[in-house]
Amino acid sequence: MQASISQLLLASLAAFPLTTAAVPSSLFVSPQKDLAFALNIPNDTSSSELFFSMAFSVQTSWVAVGLGASTMEGNPLVLMAYPSASGENVTISPRRCYGHSEPIYDSEINIEALPGTGLFNDTTFIFNGLCSNCRSWPRNGELDISSTAQDMAYATGRSSDTRSDDPRGSVKVHWSYGSFTMDLVRATGTGGIPEIPANENITSVGAVQQTVASGYVDKKAILHAVFMILTFVGIWPFGILVLRVGGSVRWHAINQVVAFGLVLIGSILGFVISTSYNRSRKFNTAHQIIGIFVFIFVIAQLVLGYLHHRIYKKTQQTTKIALIHVWLGRVVIPLGIANGFTGFPLALSPSYDFALLGVVAFVLPAFLFILLVRGIFKKLVQTAKQSDESNGYHMEPWRGSQPGMQQPATQAGDPITPTRLGIAQQDARQFV
Q1: Spatial separation of the C-alpha atoms in residues 25 and 184, rounded to whole Å
Q2: How far is CA 212 from the centre of its chain?
Q3: Helix/strand number for the chain, H first, E second
Q4: Per CATH, domain 5-214 is 3.40.50.2300
Q5: Between vectors from CA 121 to CA 118 and to CA 126, what angle results, nearest 5°?
Q6: pTM exceeding the 0.85 threshold for the entire prediction
Q7: Cα–Cα distance between 329 and 240 in angstroms, integer?
Q8: What is the pLDDT of residue 318?
Q9: What does the pLDDT look like over 82-120, one tens digit per residue?
Q10: Domain layout of the chain by residue ranges
Q11: How far apart are CA 89 and CA 82, in angstroms?
Q12: Please, which of 50, 69, 178, 263 could form a disulfide with 212 given CB 3.0 to 4.6 Å?
């Protein structure tokens, strides 16, 4: 049985104590025990330094502690940590919050890695640090070192393979998060690396849990992916079958309008999502650029289809617009599908590309097979009809007269015959 996160964390701490001598500190341990954070504040009034220690399991992709506020909107200074590219060390990333979005790296916050930092026992990452200017920050952010209940926040990321040496590296949205208060008076005294006790019953000391939540997922990102894949892989190809196989212009139009509505909603969600993550804020990734072009083409498709149908109803003649509409559709659908494969890596979930590939590999061949069978069947019917007519046999004799035959006059009250029906249909087309 796989060990729990808390068991891995505690086993590592027991094997590798972080300090040799205790210094005044306050300690926070998350309810899931996937994060331990200890803080020490030197009592030198002229100093702006503080010492801290963070420990988290290898099963956690990243951790963060927000100093000075209980929410992201409260302007906290965020100490974020995640595995290095080699997986043998820890990357520390001081960041600033600007609303409910991924915190942005702040290069003006100076943090020095101290002895004891790294991966221990192959189970736990530890970062011991000294921050020279973490007591106050822009926008009136500060730690009140005289407070016995200073507001703090924390968050942890779900397990993933994301590793980086870049302090600006982007991460997925938090899986668990919450707030707590910390006694900074208790943490003030002789400066040094604060101790995280190495025992199985480790609990918070000088810190009180306030709120806690877990299992958070970015529903906007999920809906964006579902709407786009459903439209480009499913609904739009189905609309082509409705027209080519079913022969219904009306239901083809309804199908395409519904698909456009889903694309519109998906595009709006994509825009909102892009502003929430550092990796997509500038709208300069391949997925976003291609997506913008696809959205423009989709609008053009809707307009072209409407114009062609309107002109055709008046003239009963095909238009050049129809050709453009058809070929633009042949470009837009494959381009939209291909862009799906760039979206999952941007969301730091490249493994989902395999699932998308499986769906595409099943749906598109089935779609093409139906069109192929329909084409072959239609050709066989036409060939058989031409063959019968060349032998003097008419499958639908009422649609034309044979040489030497005179069409009988139609009298009022006569029953509807195939000949009269054909004439009636021809007259009706004048009003379509």
Answers
A1: 8
A2: 24
A3: 8, 16
A4: no
A5: 30
A6: no
A7: 10
A8: 82
A9: 999 999 999 999 999 988 899 999 999 999 999 999 999
A10: 5-214, 219-378
A11: 9
A12: 178
